[in-house]
Design brief:
Helix content: 10-25%
Structural class: alpha+beta
Radius of gyration: 20 Å
Strand order of the largest sheet: 1-9-10-11-3-6
Number of helices: 3
Shape: globular
Number of domains: 1
């Protein structure tokens, strides 16, 4: 049997990746998340990241986090975790007051530096003070009904800088879940000493494994 060509293997590796998908952002009477982003970064100053690529992140990371805006009925807590059972939370401090203020310079809001050891991690938003609201994660499998509660935007011209926008109401039949993703917006900048790190979604890990397999098969063909 003739071995597969390198091009065939590359196509197979690419076909194993999921197609880009984008969770719909609904409108509401409140200012749209796009309005906030346009004011802070300028119209066209950011690009939506596929929701297939923002669920898991990786790195021995130091993150600079700035709260941009919050349109919510509860104080917002933001953080990241690896196990995500409440035992390894790394929290933004102080909590972000739900003051309904948006479109201010980034320096007008609290800033925090978070650090985490190597390995995959997830972001989370944990509103407090409202019984119907619970913690939601960037990983939909950890959320009620596996809803996608976080959408991500990369900031043009600023490598490894992202705006994360959360919908804090649980995805239920409750009409309060307006899914406008403006309940909490934060900017995260990935830094590791003097080296910037990048998010490493599960699909990128799959591609990396496929490329390793391709390299091994290519070496085996050369040896034969």
């Amino acid at each position: 049997m003739r071995p597969p060509s390198l091009l065939t293997l590359l196509l197979l590796a690419a076909s194993a990746l999921p197609a880009d998908s984008f969770t719909p952002i609904f409108g509401s009477p409140e200012p749209a998340v796009a309005t906030t982003l346009d004011t802070v970064y300028g119209a066209g100053g950011y690009t939506r990241v596929s929701d297939d690529l923002d669920q898991f992140w990786q790195g021995d990371a130091i993150l600079s986090v700035v709260a941009i805006s919050s349109y919510a009925g509860a104080t917002q807590a933001f953080g990241l975790c690896q196990i995500c059972d409440g035992s390894d939370d790394t929290l933004f401090a102080p909590s972000i007051t739900a003051d309904g203020i948006s479109m201010q310079p980034l320096t007008a809001f609290a800033q925090s530096t978070l650090s985490l050891g190597p390995g995959l991690f997830r972001f989370f938003n944990d509103p407090s003070g409202v019984a119907q609201v619970g913690r939601v994660y960037s990983d939909p499998t950890l959320n009620p009904l596996q809803g996608d509660h976080m959408v991500t935007f990369s900031i043009n011209g600023q490598p490894n800088v992202y705006a994360l926008a959360f919908e804090d109401w649980l995805f239920t039949s409750d009409p309060e879940s307006d899914r406008d993703y403006n309940d909490l917006v934060v900017q995260v900048s990935f830094l590791r000493n003097d080296i910037q790190t990048t998010p490493e979604p599960a699909s990128a890990l799959l591609l990396g494994g496929g490329l390793l397999l391709i390299a091994r098969l290519a070496r085996r063909r050369q040896a034969s």
